[in-house]
């Protein structure tokens, strides 16, 4: 995180996080809609079960490494793009989880003593 004297680090453009993290499935859904590809067609092309693909597109399931590679083969969008987007989404979601944040704070207190 960038720090500048006298400025809240959360207010620096490079440190801003979106109000709601964007699940990569949302982007994939828009992409296939723009290309005129149905969910069933993408499911057939990739071999990803329709229900699993639908869950990805609706942000209920993560894009796995295998899914990313299959999507890359079908659409030509690099698997790294999907995996990085999933990682960013997961990190933002974890940071916003209050119970998990409390757990991290407790671990940091213990580690500081050591």
Q: Could you give me the name of the CATH homologous superfamily?
A: lambda repressor-like DNA-binding domains
N-to-C span: 25 Å
Number of domains: 1
User: If classified by CATH, what would the architecture be?
Assistant: Orthogonal Bundle
| Strand percent estimate | under 5%
SSE order? HHHHHH
Query: What's the helical proportion of residues?
Result: 55-70%
Count helical runs.
6
What structural class should be given to the helix and strand makeup?
Answer: mainly alpha
General form: elongated
Please give the CATH class. Answer: Mainly Alpha
Mean pLDDT reading: 90
Spans where pLDDT lies below 50 across 5 or more residues: none
CATH topology: 434 Repressor (Amino-terminal Domain)
Describe this entry's structure for a reader:
With 114 residues, this protein is mainly α. The protein is built from 6 helices and no strands. It has a single domain, classed as Orthogonal Bundle (434 Repressor (Amino-terminal Domain)), CATH 1.10.260. 64% of the residues lie in helices and 0% in strands. It is elongated and about 55 Å long. It starts with 23 loop residues before the first helix and ends with a helix.
């Amino acid at each position: 995180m960038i720090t500048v004297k006298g400025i809240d680090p959360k207010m620096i453009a490079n440190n801003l996080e979106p109000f709601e993290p964007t699940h990569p499935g949302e982007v994939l859904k828009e992409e296939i809609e723009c290309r005129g590809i149905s969910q069933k067609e993408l499911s057939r092309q990739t071999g990803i079960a329709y229900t699993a693909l639908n869950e990805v597109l609706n942000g209920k399931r993560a894009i796995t490494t295998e899914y990313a590679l299959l999507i890359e083969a079908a659409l030509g969008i690099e698997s790294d793009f999907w995996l990085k987007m999933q990682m960013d989404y997961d990190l933002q979601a974890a940071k916003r989880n209050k119970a998990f944040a409390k757990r991290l704070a407790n671990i940091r207190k213990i580690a500081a003593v050591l």
